[in-house]
Amino acid sequence: MSHQGDYEQRKFNGRRNDYNTYIDWIENKDIRKKEILEHFPAYVGHMTLSRSITFYELYKKTKGIAGHIADVGIYKGFSSFLMAKLIKLNESESLTQVHGFEWFKGMGIDSIDSKVLSGSYLSSKEELIEMIKSQGLEDILLIHDLDLETELDEFFNTLKHMMFKLVILDVGFYKVLKECIPHFWSRLTPGGIMIFDQYNHELAPGESMAVRENLPNIKIETIHNSWTPTAFAVKPYV
């Protein structure tokens, strides 16, 4: 009998030994950090590279649409920093910002969600802020430390003007997403995109449930070449 999460484990299991061997090789090589930063395609794995390209392709679809970018569940800042730098490259004269939402306490679970994720994704707010400042992104990338289950009403009541053209949902848990999706969907400009990191994913069943309940009549599109994110939706024009 298979268990929740088994398919993902089986599908990618053949790659793990080679990947771990490669990581050990990297860690034992005398490679300067500057070399890795300047020649990152030579070092990064193809699945991580695919994730970056996927975000870039979806960002490009929002060209000409008004609004900021929301990154909900930022962890170490992969997508937040990527989007901030895409704005810097592509929207140098705009006021577009990335708003990252995180509570910096890791992931809890309830009975709906996979036990595999419990306690994971704990990150440091101070480290993120330091990285933002060191790269001169203070005006573009803003971090909001709040509980997404209970504090979104107050947040948006304070910022009544705020609209988004792109929303990245990388939370994975039912209770949080049940609150997040209505708030961010209502603030998504028509034609804008909402990205689901683990839609139809056995390790995050609560994500699919929250999407079905909140967006029952919205077309959910798959992403064929991406491990995660797995899907997105374009907000229709009424």
> Order of helices and strands, N to C?
HHHEHEHEHEHEHEE
Which band does the percent of strand residues land in? 15-25%
From the coordinates shown, what is the CATH architecture of the largest domain? 3-Layer(aba) Sandwich
Spatial gap, N to C terminus: 46 Å
- Unreliable residue stretches: none
Order of strands side by side in the largest beta sheet? 3-2-1-4-5-7-6
Number of domains: 2
* CATH-assigned homologous superfamily of the largest domain: Vaccinia Virus protein VP39
Can you tell me the overall shape? globular
What is the makeup of the main sheet? 7 strands, mixed
Helix percentage range: 40-55%
**Rounded average pLDDT:** 91
Number of E-type strands: 7
Number of helices: 8
